[in-house]
Amino acid sequence: MGAEANGSSSSLNFLIYGRTGWIGGILGKLCEAQGIPYTYGSGRLEDRRSLISDLDSVKPSHVFNAAGVTGRPNVDWCESHKVETVRTNVVGTLNLADVCRERGLVLINYATGCIFEYDSGHPLGSGLGFQEEDTPNFTGSFYSKAKAMVEELLKNYENVCTLRVRMPISSDLSNPRNFITKITKYEKVVDIPNSMTILDELLPISLEMAKRNLTGIWNFTNPGVVSHNEILEMYREFVDPSFTWKNFTLEEQAKVIVAPRSNNELDATKLKTEFPEMLSIKESLVKFVFEPNKKTEIKG
Hints:
Elements: E1 14-17, H1 22-34, E2 38-40, H2 48-58, E3 62-65, H3 76-79, H4 82-102, E4 106-112, H5 142-154, E5 160-165, H6 179-185, H7 199-211, E6 216-219, H8 228-238, H9 250-254, H10 269-274, H11 281-290
Parallel strand pairs: 1-2, 1-3, 3-4, 4-5, 5-6
Helix pairs in contact: 1-7, 2-4, 4-5
């Protein structure tokens, strides 16, 4: 392994795409905290020449892709903006993977695990999660359909590390992209166990994966599942004792959204084996999200 594989920050120089995004912003802060030199890419993913220009000027040791469109306010946007979705999430991602491969650079690509749904082989509540080798079975939304397509194509690029992120959560409860923030503001929520990604714990792990030059597909979620109600119960316990919510069924939810949503459990064994210290989803929620946001009681 070369110097950049041993993780000494003097040999590291990260190029990050997605400066204005949630994950991209956190990555910059993590690099600062670890003393890792980093630069945000100024090129557009769909403009190959601009990517080449970034690589030539920055000369990075590793590249991170946290750019892409998820749709505002949600993935329903992609249903009516299919070309824009393909341009960035498919063409752009492939462009970046390709120019990185030409230079022998590892690309850490923050992808999605919302390309699966519970099925007869992976029933809800069974504890049988989808593995890295499994073929995506959820095509309910165009966002997910396009992401599954690009994941399949990226398998041909041996320099790419694909991280399947799901329902990302962080300790920043003011961020509108935070899954917890989203569901606390919904009028009604479904209640389905899902695999999720605690960014405060897993994004530092993704930097370590780059240092180890890990590639291939990884289910990038904390082990186990947690349901909407379980999260909201924790929110009520730690943050807002007066918080209340209402549930509704998937059938009722379908009437107020354009595209169906993915619900699944991903098997995190591969990641847990590489990083044994990683906490289960419920432990991680308490340690990294709810404990830091705990409201101290004022005793009169």
